[in-house]
Amino acid sequence: MEIISLLNSGIKKPKLLIQALKTKGFQEPNYKMLANFLAVHRKTIVAPIVSLGELEAYCNNKNYVSGAEDEPFLVDSFFL
Questions:
Q1: 28's torsion region: left (phi>0), alpha (psi -120 to 50) or beta?
Q2: Are 74 and 59 in contact (CB under 8 A)?
Q3: What is the DSSP letter of 31?
Q4: What is the pLDDT of residues 20-71, one digit of tens each?
Q5: Which residues neighbour 34 within 8 Å (Cβ) at sequence distance 6 or greater?
Q6: Which residues of 21-60 are buried (b: 16+ CB within 10 A; e: fewer)?
Q7: Distance (Å, whole) CA 63 – CA 76
Q8: pTM of the full predicted structure?
């Protein structure tokens, strides 16, 4: 799909994608449909954003040193 290849080339905004599709000779998609497609695509491809609370909880769970050599642990953390 041409939209996916344009996304992989670095074009992320819907208006820029529509302009790039026009210059390549493709039919112009509906802006709202393209924006919805991008929202769904970002959720499935891009890693989810971690909230500060989730990060702090993860750090609190990893602040002990276990006996296993390959178990990660946290030395220090500071949250504002």
A1: beta
A2: yes
A3: H
A4: 999 999 998 899 999 999 988 888 876 677 888 888 888 888 777 777 778 7
A5: 3, 14, 17, 18
A6: beeeeeeeeeeeebeebbeeeeeeeeeeeeeeeeeeeeee
A7: 8
A8: 0.54
